[in-house]
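Journal club prep, shared notes

We agreed each person brings one worked example of a sequence with its structure written out as tokens. Mine is Hydroxymethylglutaryl-CoA synthase. I'm keeping it raw so we can talk through how to read the token line rather than staring at a rendered picture. Sequence first:
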Amino acid sequence: MQVGIDKIGFYAPSQYLDLTELAQARGEDPNKYLIGIGQSEQVVIPVTQDVVTMAASAASQVITDDNREKIAMVIFGTESGIDHSKSAAMYLKRLLHLPDQIRAIEVKQACYGATFGVQTAKDYVKANPEKQVLVIGADIARYGLNTPGEVTQGGGAVAMTIAAAPQILALDDATSFRSEDIMDFWRPLYRTEALVDGRYSENIYVDFFQAVFHDYCKTTGRTIADFAALTYHLPFTKMGLKGLRSVLPEASDTQQTRLKANFEASRVYNRRVGNLYTGSLYLSLMSLLANAALATGDRIGLFSYGSGAEGEFYSGTLVQSTPALAAKQQFDAYFKKRTKLSVAEYESCFKRQLPNHDVLLDTKADDARFVLTGIKHDQRQYVDRSHTE
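Then the structure, token by token:
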């Protein structure tokens, strides 16, 4: 029995910042961002959006009347949780009108959380093939204005249903994972912006990739020649390129050409959205499916990394060829409707944070279906506009 990704959806707000303009405002050569970091644009998150609203918008694309009653579990991977106690999955369960006979939990390990969700969901569906699991990767990446990490900000959500007889990617059983207590990136409870040792984190990322990839190959007997594409967690797209380059010498010249071309396809959308933390790997997968020339049965490798640090390499095979799967039209429409902010507008939006007291927010400028309308009695207030307008 095959189990894997049956449906996948994406959401990010429609405001964005041009990183060439940011570079000019910061007195930097734009190529430092465009080439050195591998980013050209980044999403700007308004105060009326958080991980719950973004997850709801992404999940509404994969939850329908046909599968709603089949969902037995929601696993919400995030490092941008809104409550120290109550899971973001519980709010999401209500907004999506999911059944009460369900588990709804939030998991955290930096950018790795959604991958734990995928693997846990796969095991559950194997034991309960009539059921499905909703897995979320949603985050808001914040490092602060005029910081080295500013160019790697962003945010958004990816939602996946894991099911038997999947329509998109059938997951292989083999997987390799690794954990070490490492301080390359962290965010204490008292901070709204993350702390990162950038160069150290890049080195750890590559080390973890090589370790889990080679362990996977040793365990399975597969080699790099067995993969049509390798996808990566992309906090910024140059990071994944470094990972790919570290193993390219193991491939033939023809294979290297294909892997490099498919990597470029897999980072098209990440370059323009920015860092999704837990959702970054899966946005990269969507970008690959929409922009690469792939065929049914092609094996795709996925490298997940969460600073602190945990890494995992696993794989799956395409159930259908790319034309039947690609969300290219959806992404083309999304990028076409976006609104570019000036650097000053972006800075103003970044500084606007949700107060820690009762407040009513002006949501007129937010075109999303799901919005955060404010706080009442220390409780976040969410609205599904499709039910109120």
